[in-house]
Design a protein that fits this description.
5 helices; mainly alpha
């Protein structure tokens, strides 16, 4: 009994099989994440439609779907040309930077410096709230709290 010869460019059925035990959780997670985004977008469309009128809400939704379709059709194939290692480095750097910011906030919170985390810009009458706290030496959280402007 001879083994079949595969011609160039010919795909056999078992070449395309997917192991759903391994791919299933990933596909399910991606589907649920996109479902959450769909519900959020639907809520916005319903709110705009109820307040401002349905013509504008549905027209904006149709235009947004058309723009999305054009972007996917034009830029989708270009995504395959981005080097995988570059994507990993960029995403890893972003995750590291966000993690350092959250770590800084957690250290400040645990050291009693939660009053330093304000979104209001300092003014001449109200200076930066953590400047006196850090200068007093009570911070004790190392370089992350001593130089709060480095990670913002």
């Amino acid at each position: 009994m001879s083994t079949p010869v595969r011609r160039a460019g010919e795909l056999w059925r078992w070449d395309m099989m997917v192991d759903w035990t391994h791919a299933g959780p990933t596909v399910l997670a991606a589907f649920l994440a996109s479902l959450v985004e769909f519900v959020e977008a639907l809520t916005i469309v319903l709110a705009v439609g109820a307040v401002r009128g349905w013509r504008g809400a549905l027209g904006g939704t149709g235009l947004a779907l058309l723009v999305l379709l054009v972007l996917v059709l034009t830029l989708g194939p270009a995504l395959t040309r981005i080097p995988h290692d570059l994507v990993l480095i960029v995403l890893g750097t972003l995750v590291l930077l966000f993690g350092m910011r959250w770590l800084r906030k957690a250290i400040l919170r645990s050291a009693g410096g939660s009053r330093c985390m304000t979104r209001k810009p300092p003014s001449p009458r109200r200076p930066r709230p953590c400047a006196a706290w850090v200068a007093s030496g009570r911070a004790g959280t190392g370089w992350l709290s001593a130089q709060p402007s480095t990670l913002r």
